[in-house]
């Protein structure tokens, strides 16, 4: 049996953020194939097995090319994947400004435990140290109060409504400016 190869990106007291592998497809299906998760990330229907597999492959490629992706979030105690948190490239800004998009998606059984805040904060710390960017943005599916609270806790500021091509709708947009001292 081949050993599964992934790279640990960062850790917190309770979590490990690591790259996805193709062997993680069942966890990806549990996450992005879940109706409750999907309604909070702006998709009309759960992703199919093929769509999840393609998303994981794109994430792996993005990690190789850019040094970041939406990483698998695992519990330290069990190694179980409970969500995804990390960054996407963001192209809807002025060319002179380098921006990335913070994303976090967690399985419903992980909600309400502070995991999203913990993982997102670890991602911001990682970005300060390892990603060349001027700001981090985050879009929120309208009415997702939990995600808005997380962004508020992390120091994001509301920018207004922005059209997202993937969801085909306007969504609230938040930003976090990286200061030169923090990079």
TrEMBL record:
Domain called N-acetyltransferase: residue spans: 15-181
Top-level taxonomic group: Bacteria
Short name of any one Pfam family annotated for the protein: Acetyltransf_3
UniProt-listed SUPFAM superfamilies: Acyl-CoA N-acyltransferases (Nat) (SSF55729)
Gene3D superfamilies from the UniProt entry: 3.40.630.30
Xref: InterPro entries: Acyl_CoA_acyltransferase (IPR016181), GNAT_dom (IPR000182), N-acetyltransferase (IPR051531)
PANTHER family in the cross-refs: GNAT FAMILY, PUTATIVE (AFU_ORTHOLOGUE AFUA_3G00765)-RELATED-RELATED, N-ACETYLTRANSFERASE DOMAIN-CONTAINING PROTEIN
Protein name: GNAT family N-acetyltransferase
């Amino acid at each position: 049996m081949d050993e599964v190869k992934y790279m640990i990106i960062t850790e917190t007291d309770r979590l490990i953020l690591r790259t996805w592998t193709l062997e993680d497809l069942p966890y990806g299906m549990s996450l992005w194939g879940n109706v409750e998760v999907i309604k909070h990330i702006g998709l009309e229907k759960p992703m199919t097995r093929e769509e999840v597999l393609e998303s994981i492959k794109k994430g792996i490629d993005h990690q190789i090319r850019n040094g970041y992706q939406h990483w698998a979030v695992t519990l330290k105690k069990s190694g179980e994947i409970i969500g995804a948190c990390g960054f996407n490239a963001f192209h809807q800004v002025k060319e002179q400004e380098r921006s990335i998009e913070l994303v976090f998606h967690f399985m419903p059984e992980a909600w309400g435990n502070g995991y999203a805040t913990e993982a997102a904060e670890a991602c911001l710390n990682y970005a300060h140290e390892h990603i060349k960017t001027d700001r981090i943005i985050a879009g929120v599916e309208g009415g997702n109060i939990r995600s808005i609270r997380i962004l508020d806790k992390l120091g994001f500021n509301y920018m207004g409504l922005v059209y997202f091509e993937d969801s085909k709708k306007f969504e609230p947009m938040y930003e976090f400016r990286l200061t030169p001292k923090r990079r």
